[in-house]
């Protein structure tokens, strides 16, 4: 019997720092000066090119999930990290703490579902909850009344993407200008010498010295305003992410790249992280055929597990909603309807049907009542892709 795993993908500051202290496998240094396949910015569209979710026949399931999220998982500060409340005192976000990750996923959903009123409402909530002088705080604790002084680059970029998409979808130049403004802030604090880093600590005035590959949102970087260092940034970050490819035998990606060590650092291969990396590459037409073939095979078999060894052996029998949601997004992005539909159907197996209590419509564990934001919001977004 397959087990269901629930885990938010955000690698928080403490976990990131701790991971750097552990022994990790050191891989060869990539060549980042001139990627073999540079991004052709001129052919990128702001909004996704496909929208298989529109005619997927999952309107009922999407409506039930939306009702759960809006009715049970959303509070005055944003989307709860977990439906079950805690004292909000852990190193990682728990309970009704809120994450910029969740806000950015919800904003992208608002755009893709074509709801300008919801987008504006959710943006104002996110702005009041997360906006710092140097970025978006990755986490806010209502019980502690604590806004963490650290951002997460992947979530800032997703937030910026939502403004570019909203500007295009809703014909609002003010959103596009906002995207440009936040892009300039991002480039000031999360980029140094053309290299992007995971976070900037506003309180300490410090950046970290590595990049997690799934944080490298190449399309959003490409949408940013032109400037003297933009091509350098795109070139170097494309080189780093493509250089993190493991092999054709196991076509996933390393976890992070350390600038000081000039090496990839990976303990085990996290599937959600690799799928996010493959999605980012597919958005700029740089996905590897071997990666797509591997994902399609595993989705068909229902065997896309949460962690793997470097040889491609599963190191857990856990699967998750988010894994299949991300596979669906990859399918839609590359124009592969079969992959999209197969992935959505696999994802669907984890949704609690309508009429089954408080968790009806949710992607949750009925036995424990656990319902995590990342699983539910990635599923919601996948329904719109």
TrEMBL record:
GO biological process: carbohydrate metabolic process
Gene3D superfamilies xref list: 1.50.10.10
Descriptive protein name: Glycosyl hydrolase
Species name: Paenibacillus yonginensis
């Amino acid at each position: 019997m397959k087990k269901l795993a629930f885990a938010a993908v955000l690698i928080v500051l403490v976990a990131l720092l701790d991971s750097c202290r552990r022994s990790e496998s050191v891989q060869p240094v990539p060549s980042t000066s001139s990627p073999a396949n540079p991004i052709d910015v001129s052919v990128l569209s702001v909004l996704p090119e496909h929208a298989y979710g529109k005619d997927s026949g999952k309107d009922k399931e999407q409506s039930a999930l939306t009702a759960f999220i809006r009715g049970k998982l959303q509070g005055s500060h944003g989307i709860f990290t977990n439906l079950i409340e805690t004292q909000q005192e852990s190193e990682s976000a728990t309970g009704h703490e809120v994450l910029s990750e969740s806000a950015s996923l919800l904003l992208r959903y608002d755009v893709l579902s074509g709801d300008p009123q919801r987008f504006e409402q959710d943006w104002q909530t996110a702005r009041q909850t997360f906006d710092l002088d140097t970025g978006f705080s990755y986490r806010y604790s209502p019980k502690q009344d604590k806004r963490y002084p650290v951002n997460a680059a992947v979530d800032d970029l997703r937030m910026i993407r939502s403004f570019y998409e909203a500007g295009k979808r809703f014909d609002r130049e003010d959103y596009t200008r906002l995207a440009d403004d936040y892009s300039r802030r991002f480039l000031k604090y999360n980029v140094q010498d053309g290299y992007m880093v995971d976070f900037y600590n506003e309180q300490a005035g410090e950046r970290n010295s590595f990049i997690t590959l799934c944080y490298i949102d190449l399309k959003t970087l490409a949408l940013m305003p032109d400037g003297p260092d933009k091509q350098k940034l795109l070139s170097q970050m494309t080189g780093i992410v493509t250089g993190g490819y493991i092999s054709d035998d196991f076509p996933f990606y390393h976890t992070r790249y350390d600038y000081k060590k000039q090496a990839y650092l990976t303990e085990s291969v996290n599937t959600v992280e690799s799928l996010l990396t493959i999605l980012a590459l597919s958005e700029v037409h740089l996905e590897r055929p071997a990666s797509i073939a591997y994902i399609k095979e595993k989705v068909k078999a229902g065997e896309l597990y949460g962690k793997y060894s470097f040889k491609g052996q599963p190191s857990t029998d856990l699967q998750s909603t988010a894994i299949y949601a991300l596979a669906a997004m990859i399918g839609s992005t590359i124009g592969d309807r079969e992959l999209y539909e197969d992935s959505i159907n696999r994802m669907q197996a984890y949704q609690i049907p309508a009429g089954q209590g408080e968790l009806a419509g949710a992607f949750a564990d009925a036995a424990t009542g656990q319902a995590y934001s990342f699983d539910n919001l990635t599923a919601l977004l996948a329904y719109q892709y």
